[in-house]
Amino acid sequence: MAYDTTADHSHDHSHDDHGDHGPAHGWRRWVFATNHKDIGTMYLVFACVMFFVGGFMAMIIRAELFKPGLQLVEPQFFNSMTTMHALIMIFGAVMPAWTGLANWMIPMQVGAPDMALPRLNNFSFWILPFAFTLLLGTLFVPGGSPAGGWTLYPPLSLQSGNAFPMAIFAIHLMGASSILGSINVVVTIMNMRAPGVGLLNMPLFCWSWLITAYLLIATMPVLAGAVTMLLTDHFFGTSFFSASGGGDPVMFQHIFWFFGHPEVYILILPAFGIMSEIIPTFSRKPLFGYDAMVYATAAIAFLSFIVWAHHMFTVGMPLAGQLFFTLSTMMISIPTGVKVFNWTATMWKGSLTFEPPMLFALSFLFLFTIGGFSGLMLAVVPADFQYHDTYFVVAHFHYVLVPGAVFGIMGGVYYWLPKWTGKMYDLKLATWHFWLSTIFVNVLFFPQHFLGLAGMPRRIPDYSTQFADWNMVSSLGGFGFGLSQLLFPYIIWKCIKAGEKIGARAWDGAHGLEWELSSPPPYHSWTEPPSREVIARGVLH
Amino acid sequence: MSFHMKNTHARRGLQAAAVSLFALLASVAHADWGGLNMTQGVTILSRKIYSLHMLILWICVALAVVVFGAMIYSLVKFRRSKGAEADRTLVHSTKVEIVWTIIPIFILIGMAVPIAKTLIEIEDMGNVDLNIKVTGYQWKWQYEYLGQNVSFFSTLKRDSNEARELGSGIDPKTIEHYLLDVDNVLVIPAGQKIRFLLTAQDVIHAWWVPAFGMKKDAIPGYVNEIWVQVDADKVGTYRGQCAELCGQDHGFMPIVVEVKSPADFDAWLRAKQAEQKLANVAPNAPSTVASTAPAVAAQ
After folding, report:
1. Which of A392, A465, A470, A481 to mutate to test the interface with B (most CBs of B within 10 A)?
2. Could you tell me the pTM of the whole model?
3. Which has the closest alpha carbon to A278: A384, A158, A361?
4. Has residue A20 been placed in a domain?
5. Measured between alpha carbons, how far is A182 from A115 in angstroms, rounded to an integer?
6. Residues of A noted as catalytic
7. Tell me, what's the pLDDT at A471?
8. Mind listing the pLDDT tens digit for each residue in A176-224?
9. What is this model's ipTM?
10. Residue A123 belongs to a domain with what CATH number?
11. Into how many domains does chain A fold?
12. Shortest Cα distance from A53 to chain B (angstroms)?
């Protein structure tokens, strides 16, 4: 679908002349921001800050688990840390980082001047600081932060103190922000593609985000409903989830995971998209099996709605239910396998180089696949009766979320940072960042498989002495991983301050409309639709 | 202007990674690192679960060898520094794509059969010799031998409970079975099929003894069931923990099960019945039998 830029352009000139010349100055640029790059930057900075806040909580967790016995924090505070670490990393770090990348890249990749709904864009970002002020504010209220796990299972979550309504309102706000951001992505991709950018030749990053946006729009209201029922159970005498009032605590888990499993793919699908950008660039070959990649992503999204109960195999389900959810879960490995095979085939007969984005992509490829294998193991219901709620699960989801989602984000930032700033970052330092992250993430999470199989439950502040050795290794890995992440903002800061100037195509194998714009790109990305020649160069097929 | 890095960085990094991995493995070999794998357990079901675990593990290992092998081969073989030229025409192959979609489907169907068989056995609650109701509380377990007039609570043993306080100054390593010992152990007979009925009083808990192969949630308003049949020759003590987050002391409500021969179990049950009868007559009489229970055999 085309939009008529010529008309837009003249319209802009007659009414809003300064808009074409650049950003407003001072705080107004950010508070009243409607530009997709400014808003994208705010999202990314916000995500980075939250990554370190959530990371600091993880350091407290790993420090307490460094050796048996309680040395640092009370058990209740420990539970608050695990709960808050999850909420902040999921809703504060990974999701806003994806929205930030979507804001920056989607208009440039589809040949549009900006996102379709700029003021909505501003609103969806500015909800977040309020949401997280509320959530982090719970650390200072009587009773402390929510400590019943990020899954908020009742009846335990109903035992929270004053933090409870604050956390629920914060979740409502985050959900509203995500829904608004997703609507913007859908509308932009559906309506703002330049002539020549078809649905089946736009970059995979746009595709994965389009599908992610639909997942968000479909599931966030479900989460909102679930937590609202918790709220009324707590304050207004309803008994949705209270057995003594005729309600059902297990029903909450079904509703929660109906949101929660698609949420898992909300966190990872955009990373799949980024892999499909980075790997072809540094293999100097087009992506293998583009169409299959699109269909596989859609298949994963569809399956994500019918596997939720694999998170709760131990609640006691009918035999048929257990079989259904085990089979549907295992089916996810088919489209996911297709993706992994296609990335490998993209490298096959390529001409590979190993710049930092590619290094992060390779780390993703190996380590996410390990997370996929442990996921396949967890799908085997009888074995899950052993794995469930142990460190094996902790290892599994951190393998898919840290070297998966987080390395995807970092790979994306290292890939596009030269485009955003017009400058090249310190490649050597970024390579160090890669090696330290990759080594420490394995020291941190691989031993947790052993701990889980040896019988250590998750979410415990203290453990029996047989688990001491691997916990110490894991904690050392954790500290190493945490410290090495400080390199990341430093590398970005150094790039902005003193990076070497770079041309439009920062990587010689890079392919796509964003690389046809100058580096840094103009304030309003494509004020005129890309010409036939640019489309021919920058669009797939 | 374009940037691409010299591959020496990458090679040096790889070497560093290999060296540190080797060092880690070497240190592993010299220490007592406890188990790396799930144990086979001591029940009929736990062995079946273990073999399913091993089956899927080996399938994953085989897949990993193929997939990682192809990746590593490409990383080595198709480097630009080695003069590799990109074959830009290799973007699609219906044949290959069908093959790598079909193969996983067969593996999944192959897995589905043993999974279904094991699940059917797990769900078979017939021919039970003894029913024990387990109720989770914040933060202790209650065990009721249904129809036997025996019921008691089981909480974390005092020495562990003192040592686990923040800043207690007690080294957990000096405590035998730190956090995995209780005042009143659950006693069951070996070689008999025992059904556990699981529920909870306040919040959701989960009852889990790894050696029995199973965990299941104990949920207020629900009664879940699992069955356990310990091998006749596997008399001993088995330990587990609550596995579902249940509040601040979730980490401190262990499970200890002492498996006795049927004859010893009957003797224990009779003694317990007598003791509880006495306790019911004189409610203030101190209960001493459980706390002086015979030293448990090492697992």
Report:
1. A465
2. 0.90
3. A361
4. no
5. 11
6. 85, 114, 150, 177-178, 261, 263, 265, 276, 310-311, 336, 339, 458
7. 96
8. 999 999 999 999 999 999 999 999 989 999 999 999 999 999 999 999 9
9. 0.89
10. 1.20.210.10
11. 1
12. 23
